[in-house]
Amino acid sequence: MTPDKARDLLLTRKAELEKVMKSSAEDENPVELDQTRVGSLSRMDALQGQALAQETVRRRKNELSRIEAALARVDSGDFGYCVNCDEEISEKRLSLDPSAPLCIDCASK
User: Fold this and answer.
1) Contact at 8 Å (CB) between 100 and 89?
2) pTM for this structure?
3) pLDDT digits (tens, 9 = 90+) for 30-76
4) Which of 106, 78, 62 is nearest to 6 (CA)?
5) Cβ contacts of residue 68 below 8 Å, gap of 6+?
6) Helices of type H across 1-109
7) What span, in angstroms and rounded, lies between the C-alpha atoms of 75 and 52?
8) Which of 12, 22, 46, 98 is the most exposed, fewest CB within 10 Å of its CB?
9) At what angle do helices 40-76 and 3-23 cross, to 10 degrees?
10) CA-CA distance, 81 to 77, in Å (whole number)?
């Protein structure tokens, strides 16, 4: 995969994530305690939903960080090389995940 193609894919995915994160920002808000309106089981469901939403946000932020790091590797000319052993990352691996920082050998250790 060429660095330009990788940059395009990474920027597209970054824009998608940022759009989704912006539209789902309310999911992170604290669950209100209103016992007249919501029973304890409903509150537990709401808390569980909030926890799931927070985990989703954490994962999206992690993916954004990986994308930023990959874009930095594209800019520095290091894209496509393992950050651990400096061996070339396979084309197949990069086509599945252009933000992959490690070759398959280092990732499986």
Assistant:
1) yes
2) 0.79
3) 655 555 555 566 777 878 888 888 899 999 999 999 999 999 999 99
4) 78
5) 14
6) 3-23, 40-76, 91-96, 104-107
7) 35
8) 22
9) 160
10) 9
